[in-house]
Amino acid sequence: MAATSPAVRQLEDALIARLRACATFRDLLSAHGHAVRLCLSRSSYVATQIVHLCNAHGRAAHAARVFAQVPDPNLHLYNAMIKAYAQNHLHRDAVEVYVRMLRCLPPPWGGGGFSGGDRFTYPFLLKACGGLAAVELGNQVHAHVVRSGCEAHDIVQNSLIEMYTRCGDLSLARRVFDGMRNKDAVSWNTLISAHARLGQMRKARALFDSMSDKTVVSWTALVSGYTAVGDFAGAIEVFRLMQMEGFEPDDVSIVAVLPACAQLGSLELGRWLYAYCDKRGMLRKAYICNALMEMYAKCGCIDQALQLFHGMPDKDVISWSTAIGGLAAHGRAREAVRLFEAMDREGKVRPNGVTFVGLLSACSHAGLLDDGLRYFDSMKDAYGVEPVVEHYGCLVDLLGRSGRIRRALDTVRGMPVPADAKIWGSLLSACRSHGDVDTAVVAAEQLVELEPGDVGNLVMLANVYAAARRWGDVARTRKEIRSRSTRKTPGCSMIEVDNVVREFVAGEDLGPELGGLAAVLDILASQLAAHDEEFVDSDWWVDANVFASD
């Protein structure tokens, strides 16, 4: 390639200075046009800067047009284009640019060596391989990393770990990790996050405990992992340990722990998190407010959730859906419907599938049959939302609660996807409420077929057969229950006292410190019986002997 003359270099430097001063994409387009007029758009030096700026504005398509104008791109321009594609999730395009680079770039120093990339090429190329979850392609790129002599760079090694974890091959990721001389926080956090993401919390915790210099990212990865696998108490415990170690939670760690607060009903911690976010100005972020709203709604504080919602300057579809679903879950169905109508009138945000689950659930609980049917029909036609099994479940529940048992059964049988156990359970509940024994038998038999391991379904089926006076089927079902030698999973409940969540399991010994609850339950049961003799029925009887006494 011919050397650039001093005059051309001076023009290029002036143009680069103008490009770096561009604040908007419109400014960039103007500077690009100036480069074309000066016949500098074919310069790799200028084109590289334009591609970087296009990437910063999320304009990968324009970056590709700039790249295509350069007849002989140099390594820097190839790297910029691979980075732009990878960071804009155009992973296949990034790989194709690399393949073209291998074919077109001459070997280094004019010899017959490997004409691969450098330490700036491979981090983004490996990101593309991970985005494609293409482990075989990643293996080939790994070989190129070794051949090009870039394997010793920490950033490349961390990228290899990330690529293998994204491809689900943690054994190769661990091999790269173990071979690193200088493991930094990124190396540790990547591997911890990968194990947590796959639900391998023992391995994640073992790595975490062996990490000497933990960061807030390390703690957050552990909190997220425990939340994802349903160990909500573990998530809150790790979050508290993080604070005790002197780490201040960031927005990511707060969003990670809030679902655990919601599931356990840990309202005091949730309120502290709200105050923490308010003090640090985090309530301007929609995703923080959405997580707080969901926590308040699931902890029974729907008014606080609504206060947050109405104070949000920019509401997204998650904000609206959370508020609508929260109102529906708290029995304030008509408010949920009015909120949906307000969302529709405002027109800034289009509802999605989650929005309609909350809306249809509200209609079901309020007995708004006509409105519910109208909203269900409008999902696809007016909003382009294809109904899925959750929406059909709400529709079946709506019809069942309204006494339209036969239509509900027809809906289940006509669904484009197979009905799940929740739908058949909802139909069974409606049958029991409205005395439709024949349909109840159908629903109960389907439940047993879908969940054969749940002995509770067999118990319900035996009761349904008894209501239908099918005594032979009753005997057969009860015999099957006895043959399994299984027990129904005991019910449990949780309560937060003094910022500690306690779990109570039916039939469990409470211990001496809580044995006095038995006496309180006796008093409550007697008071309920005095108000209404129906509560004396065996189905409602509270057996105080289950609990330990002082």
From TrEMBL:
It comes from the Eukaryota. Keywords: Repeat, Transit peptide. The keyword Isomerase does not apply. PPR repeats lie at residues 74-108, 184-214, 215-249, 285-315, 316-350. The keyword Transit peptide applies. It holds the Pfam family E_motif. InterPro entries: E_motif, PPR_At4g14850-like_plant, PPR_rpt, TPR-like_helical_dom_sf. Transmembrane segments: none annotated. This is Pentatricopeptide repeat-containing protein. It comes from Urochloa decumbens.
